[in-house]
Amino acid sequence: QVQLVESGGGLVEAGGSLRLSCAASGITLETNVIAWYRQAPDKQRELVAVMGVGSSDQPNYQDPVKGRFTISRDKAKNTMYLQMNSLKPEDTAVYYCNVVTRGWTNYWGQGTQVTVSS
Q: Which is nearest to 95 in space by CA: 38, 35, 12?
């Protein structure tokens, strides 16, 4: 059974940093596409960052977070991360980790709240 367990959200002032973690079990992150999404109140869930596998493992970021957020994964810990720096109030949302298998099955974390105060 695949489980993705998120942690690391919280309340931070604008300009601050947070690191989100997503620990995986039942699936190997290294061999699957990983991504982070977020959903702000009254808005649709949106992609934040994505990282492929092998020769396609260069991360890609949505414009609002480029230069501020970094997606990564730790093979030994089978955990993925989202380092968020220079946070802005508009980054406030519930953040979800996502894994997509070669067979296009999607798995989601439970979500973690990030609130950035101005």
A: 38
